Amino acid sequence: MGKQEIEDMDRAAEAVGPTWATDDVTLTAARERSGVGTRMGRVGRAFGVVALAVSIVTSTLSSCGGGGGGETGTLSAQVTSTCMLCHNGSSTTNYAGPGIEDPHPFPGASNMDCIVCHGGNASGQTKELAHVPPPPQIGDRNFQDTNATAYFNRLTLTGIDKFPDYTVDGVTYTAIDYLQWLNPGDLRVTQSGMGCGQCHAPHSESVANSLLATAAGMFSGASYAIGAENEVPASQGLWEDTAADIGWRAVVDPSFNLSTATVGEVGELVEFPVFSARNDNSPDAIEDNQAYTAANLLDDQFADGRVIPDTELHNLFMEQVAFTCGDCHLGSKGANNRSGDYRSSGCTACHMPYSLGGRSGSKDPHVNKFEPLDPDDIKDPEQPHVRAHRIVSVARTLSNGVEIEGMDDLTCAGCHQGSNRTVMQYWGIRLDQNEDVRRNRQYPANPDSYRTTQNDTRLFDPVLGNKEFNGRDHRQYLEFEDYDGDGRDDTPPDVHHEAGMGCIDCHGSFDLHGGEVGGRNEINSRQEHGVAISCESCHGTADAYAPTVAGTNYTGVNGQHAVDTEGNVLRNVRRESDGHLYLYSRLTGNKHYVPQTRDTIVDSGVNDPIGGGPVYSPAASYAMGRIDGSPSTGIGPQQKNHPAPGFSHTDRMDCATCHASWTNTCMGCHLEGEYNGGNNFSNITGERIVFRERFADFVYQSPIMFQLGVDHNGEIAQFSANTKTFFRYKDINNVRSDVFTFSDRNAKGSSPTAAFPALSHNAMMAHSIRGRVTAENEGPRYCVSCHNTTEGIANFGTEYESFRTAIRTGDYDSLNWSLLQDHIGRNPGNQLNSPMFVHMVAGLGSGMFLFDENGAPINPLDNNPNRKPDNVAPAGVYDATKVFYDLDRIVDEMGNPFASNNHPLRQPGMADLMRDGASDVDLAGPLGRTLLELLTDPATGLVLDSWYDADGAKGGSVTDFVGP
């Protein structure tokens, strides 16, 4: 169907509209709407004026439980309103017509009139009288088609709350009235006690202060990473000086008490500042300001690499963050302009998701079903739409027989595309932004085989016909990669995804609503402060089964339920009469057996009641058991020549350290902004601005590399590169600045005192959990991933000593690059049993990620003539004397960190010897001197004589402990 045909259909819908036949009235919309058909503009939404042919008797719906906190007030069906007649076709407020769906079909709160949520005038006799008119800054679609600022704010809702009150036909409206009309779940609406906030006020209050809404982790993390002073004086120095200070909108916790606060809590956030607005004549504004020239930025850093507060460089970097990253939160609808990114704001973003391509799946006859015409590139004045006008939540059948759909992973994927690209990883998909694999340019080595997502309908719907997801095509998303040629996928999906579980099966109300609903509504600083679920919540520990408490499931049945780390009942995880724990999927309702870690370690004869077969695994017992000779604690990782009585890996290790099978690694992130007077808009205020992103380039991406470190819990965890950012700016005179890197607020990351700075490196929960190797997929991280072995040292000991010396002394010319290409680039999970791989994992470096002072890679292996940032092949200009950054060498052998970290320990001092040698021992960070020696020094450390190799096969003398 061509574009012109769709436009013609849209105009016809406007001019004619539906004909509803009811018991009481027949409305022929064509008669009522003459002369209105072309007012909506190109591909306009087919809302038209409906003048009723009969008198309508209306009555106001009762309030929702008083509005202050009741969530299931009695809402009875009323005599019909103009809304119901026009959009559903029913003569009573019961959604019995063929049109729009009942959005809220929950017993006791179904059949609500539209105005309860959306506002407006249910007795209005025309569209103009019934609908809330837009502010003059937004106007109608014709206005939006010619006014880019109006369209941006209508599409994203970003700055609407900034508009003043306005009067139309003698009625005064607020901007929030209009926001409510568009989206009753927008947090600015719910915080005003309107829309969803009338009945769900506790949820509204909690979510509004959450990290999902404030984006404080991202905004404040960026401010911390460049060394900027905390914007909130009361928070300066708090939590190792990592306390959050900036959010999308200002929020305050009036009950904050520092003496009782937990790590990460703060009393307030200030709104992200904007310096790039047009027509801003203040001294620090960017427009037409020669203070922001490239030359003037050179003196805007302290000697230790921190940015000088309130300088032009400080302001420009934060503008870059706002432009590139500033729309990924619940406050607005985000970019909302391409397949995979379409969504709403606030509650609605999750509870009424948009379709993949933004096209309406609603039965509302007045919603255009063909826009966006091009799902990959929305055009003004098009608007995207919900899949259906019905709330999704936890999959279940209500007492009135209505089926509620579960919130699917696609709902999460639109936002969780950055950093760890969590949902894609969970699905077993890796982002290859530069298409290096397809172009046979993957660094440091190409996979033996690979497969793109060309036929993956989760991302690319053949019916919809989208060619992109989140602005990327199938060649940039890989669903299979095999680097060592064994036929197995080195980037497999998470086992929970394979089992049919979704994101919401782990992440429940606490994680998604900003904490305990009805609680204090704390403001937190980092992701871990807002997440209560853990592996142990469902699977228990090596020493104990998962605890349960009395609770009810989602259909109200009492039972014994698992709990999260905050003690919240997991209503979908319950112990049943056979003594086993089962998870009932919030996504599908399906039943899943939950094996207990203790049963995998101790052979108690437990069999999987659904899948069959024993739960006990000798390999698990060896890896996770305790070395104490007791059969009640498993075997433990015993060695012939290294006794370790009482030791268990589970004492101080995060589960995902071993069970996460692959990690997204991104080395080198080049951000460049530029002065530009075009149609660019602030993701904070919605204003037109004179700043835009010029480049956002990734240099290297790989699934093979990872590092170990100590996380916020004081446990060993997987670490990965965290936006190792190089920043540049092209000024008003078209002059490009120097390239800048930054030290954090604690002077780490790019400090001149580090031999070769490593920028940012943080713990990241890789969502790639595996239990064992299969014929199709690689498994978890077995012993050889992190430990040297007698076999590895025997095979590569000489090469290893030369390698260690070269890295320690910075003699990169002495590296055996072809050997490293095999031992790092083609060696997933350390199939080669290589000590060089172990050295990399420990955080001491691989030598593969060397960069010069301007952020350009330096190595003799990469022949890609288009390698970012300079579109030059590194091998062609290789010069080891120019190495300035060694990005995966995050620590030296004495435990002195070279990388920045912004996660404080939950309890000061809990890292003890795990970070000895560091000056920032109360922050998460690289391993300490003792652990580094243990893992990497063949002379004085631990060299395993018994192990499981990368394929899960027995090595050394392990059969002496686990049997043949």
Automatic annotation (TrEMBL):
GO MF, any single term: oxidoreductase activity
Keywords: Signal
Domain of life: Bacteria
Xref: SUPFAM superfamilies: Multiheme cytochromes (SSF48695)
InterPro entries with a match to the protein in the record: Multihaem_cyt_sf, Multiheme_Cytochr_ET
PANTHER family hit by this protein: C-TYPE POLYHEME CYTOCHROME OMCC (PTHR35038:SF8), DISSIMILATORY SULFITE REDUCTASE SIRA (PTHR35038)
UniProt protein name: Uncharacterized protein
